[in-house]
Amino acid sequence: MALVPSESMGRAAMVARQTGVVAGLPAARLALAETDSRVDLANDRADGTAVSAGARLALLAGPARNLLTCERLVLNIVGRLSGIASLTRRYVDAVAGTKARIYDTRKTMPGWRRLEKYAVRCGGGRNHRLGLFEAVLIKDNHLMFGAEARGGERFTPAEAVRRAKQFLATAFPDRPEPMIVEVEVDTLDQLTELLSEEPDIVLLDNMSLDDLRAAVRLRDAAAPRVELEASGGIQLETVGQIARTGVDRISVGALTHSAAWFDVGLDWL
């Protein structure tokens, strides 16, 4: 207010400072509309587009004071989401030529889950469940309650799947599509026992490459319909090897919890 006259108008280019994948431009436009700033954002690139350093992503125009006020808002949105999209694309490229698909997790910034999962899609990845309401995922913390439920040992994964399917059939008899049931296992013995229950997905937690290959053979022989998901400590350097074991899905928390900021700036015109 001290330096910029109230009547001044301005234009600025949003420019990528590095190579990557764009995401978040429509979200930035919506955010501008919420501020009542009278700043217009026109895309030069579509979300999901790969860009090089120096590429113009969008043009912003409007009252100069408002442009300066909203600068960091729009750059934060595009920087965060483009960082996720760019990292996701690297994982997707690393498994190219295999049948494995890259999935995100619920390890997202509070309040940003839909945006961050959208950014994963822009990078070519897929979305795991949006929230607890969207699919049953039976993990170790659920199995331990078998001791309380029946006064004995913890649930086996197979027993837990049976109980989950029975619950869903009773609680949601009119649901148009059955809810997905996924269960986590740590060992091949658990997988062998479990396959006869035919969960939709089995999450193979922190298994070695040899165990992943063995799990695929067991699944192919006993229950080909069941999808196998590798998870736990997945890194860009190892994801290609994991994909070549024959698993169907690879879930990567790092897509959202460890994505580096995408460097983007506004150049005044």
How does this model look, in words?
- It is built from 10 helices and 12 strands.
- The chain has 269 residues and is of the alpha/beta class.
- The strands form 3 sheets. A 6-stranded parallel beta sheet has the order 6-11-10-9-8-7. It has a 4-stranded antiparallel beta sheet with strand order 3-5-1-12, covered by helices on one side.
- Helix 2 crosses helix 3 and helix 6 packs across helix 7.
- The protein starts with 8 loop residues before the first strand and ends with a strand.
- 36% of the residues are buried.
Any descriptors?
39% helix; 12 strands; 10 helices; 269 residues; six-stranded parallel sheet; four-stranded antiparallel sheet; alpha/beta
What is shown here, in short?
With 269 residues, the chain is of the alpha/beta class. Helix content is 39%, strand content 20%.
Poorly predicted regions = none
Number of helices: 10
Which series of helices and strands comes N to C? EEHEEEHEHEHHHEHEHEHEHE
Helix and strand composition category? alpha/beta
**Into which percentage range does the β-strand content fall?**
15-25%
List the helices and strands and how they pair.
Layout: E1 9-16, E2 20-21, H1 25-35, E3 40-43, E4 50-51, E5 56-63, H2 64-94, E6 101-103, H3 113-122, E7 136-138, H4 140-143, H5 146-150, H6 157-171, E8 181-185, H7 188-194, E9 201-205, H8 209-222, E10 227-231, H9 239-243, E11 249-251, H10 254-257, E12 264-268
Parallel strand pairs: 6-11, 7-8, 8-9, 9-10, 10-11
Antiparallel strand pairs: 1-5, 1-12, 2-4, 3-5
